[in-house]
Specification:
It is built from two helices and nine strands, in the order ββββαβββαββ. Strands 1, 2, 3, 4, 5, 6, 7, 8 and 9 form a nine-stranded mixed beta sheet that branches. With 139 residues, it is mainly beta. It is globular.
Length: 139
């Protein structure tokens, strides 16, 4: 978590990389992402849905399977790993007060690996739920 000055006031913020996975808007701490690049139409490789456990969950009705894919380069202790994610990919800085950690019981029982918090993202007058994951334990 970083501290940023804005108009003389100090706010706790968290830099996040947001993308689509399993029909949901998903975020990871930016410090775990090294780069992103457009993936070819027939790209293969490690998909973020598999890493996070979305393979066993049903996507919401608003899921768009034809969305373009991108590679995110994850920083790992043993090197870097390219992972396929859904577009759009964006870097945002959110106030910590907008992020709501999962209650321990819900965190322990979810089938999604690394799910740690929820946040609401304001988009053109609408609010969208964003699932925030801890990328440090993903393999």
């Amino acid at each position: 978590m970083s501290v940023a000055a804005d108009s003389g006031a100090i706010h706790d913020t968290l830099d996040l990389v947001l993308f689509s996975a399993g029909g949901w808007r998903v975020g990871l701490e930016a410090r775990w992402v090294g780069a992103s690049r457009l993936a070819p139409a027939q790209a293969t490789g490690c998909a973020i849905e598999t890493l996070l456990g979305f393979a066993s969950t049903a996507p919401p009705a608003s899921a768009t399977p034809t969305a373009p894919r991108q590679y995110l380069q994850f920083k790992r202790p043993g090197g870097r790993q390219d992972v396929l994610v859904g577009s759009p990919v964006e870097l945002v800085s959110w106030p910590a007060s907008a992020i709501h950690p999962l209650p321990p019981l819900l965190a322990a029982r979810t089938g999604l690996r690394g799910l740690r918090a929820l946040a609401l993202q304001a988009n053109t007058g609408e609010q969208a739920l964003v699932l925030l994951f801890d990328a440090s334990g993903l393999t």
